[in-house]
Design a protein that fits this description.
Elements (H helix, E strand, L loop, with lengths): L3 E4 L3 E3 L4 E7 L8 E7 L6 E6 L6 E3 L7 E6 L4 E6 L8 E8 L16 E2 L3 E6 L1
Length: 127
């Protein structure tokens, strides 16, 4: 079983930047495809960004393209979500997830592809 821990959520103002990180809670030496999703109150969980095991494939939701950047630190098996020019509609609980079965160049956008999820980190954006 894989336990993921997100961090970096905070209260921000519109236009600000935040960086979220996600790391396994225990030692792991294998890279997997990983994704970021978010869920706002009263809304369904939605895809934000994903990065393949190889790092060669990165997908973004249209709503965050050009503002958010996903990356990974393979030495520490950590992924990051750099969020720039935040908008009030970006406010949500952000979750990272890992897909254990994805091929090395696959970065799934479907939440059902993912096997394990973190507990989430709250991002609040004031206008």
């Amino acid at each position: 079983q894989v336990h993921l821990v997100e961090s970096g959520g905070d209260l921000a103002q519109a236009g600000d930047s935040l960086t979220l990180s996600c790391a396994p809670s225990g030692p792991t030496f294998i890279r997997f495809a990983m994704g970021w999703f978010r869920q706002a109150p009263g809304k369904e969980r939605e895809f934000v960004a994903a990065i393949s095991q190889s790092g060669n494939t990165i997908n973004y939701a249209d709503s965050v393209k050009g503002r958010f950047t996903v990356s990974r630190d393979d030495a520490n098996i950590i992924i990051f979500l750099q969020m720039n020019n935040l908008r009030p509609e970006d406010a949500a609980v952000y979750y990272c997830a890992v897909d254990l079965d994805a091929s090395k160049d696959s970065a799934p956008t479907n939440p059902y592809a993912y096997d394990y999820w973190g507990q989430g980190t709250q991002v609040t954006v004031s206008s």
